[in-house]
TrEMBL record:
It comes from Chlorobium limicola. It comes from the Bacteria. Keywords: Transferase. GO terms for molecular function: carbon-nitrogen ligase activity, with glutamine as amido-N-donor; transferase activity. This is Glutamyl-tRNA amidotransferase. InterPro entries: Asn/Gln_tRNA_amidoTrase-B-like, GatB_Yqey_C_2, YqeY/Aim41, YqeY/Aim41_N.
């Protein structure tokens, strides 16, 4: 079952169950996927690859995290709570996150493969790491690990 089919099925289930927060989150996911699909359309047809779907989900999850941070800082716990519940729904569709140990192991492999020897090579290592860990690890966490493993 493709992600789009799964989202459509979950949308129907949410409509029947009457869970408003879940319904809103699924609608926003569906809208973001449709928007991306339309933007890549050539000749009237087009569909998203699995990687592109993951990119869209990562993007909207990041927006939710940023909104939660801002609402919390702005003393709006009610809005932060709404964003948090929508983020939980979005995370259901994302690939399983990798552990810190797996991030470190992946980055060590990339450093060895690219021959990175100092912080000058950080851009190259980050590019490879984000390709390998796309949707599975937070970019900030990956950056911290890369900085800790590369000598100054």
């Amino acid at each position: 079952m493709s992600l789009k089919d799964k989202i459509d099925a979950d949308l129907k289930a949410s409509l029947k169950s009457g869970k408003k927060d879940r319904l809103n989150a699924i609608r926003s996911i569906r809208a973001a996927l449709l928007e991306k699909e339309v933007s890549i359309r050539v000749g009237g047809t087009g569909s998203l690859s699995e990687e592109q779907e993951t990119e869209v989900l990562v993007s909207i999850a990041k927006k939710r995290r940023d909104a939660i941070e801002q609402f919390t800082a702005g003393n709006r716990p009610d809005l932060a709570e709404t964003e948090q519940s929508e983020l939980k729904v979005i995370e259901e569709y994302l690939p399983e996150p990798v552990s810190d140990e797996e991030i470190v192991a992946t980055i060590r492999e990339i450093i060895a493969k690219t021959g990175a020897s100092s912080m000058k090579d950080m851009g190259r290592v980050m590019g490879e790491a984000m390709k390998a860990l796309k949707g599975k690890a937070d970019g900030g966490k990956v950056q911290q690990v890369v900085k800790s493993l590369l000598p100054a």
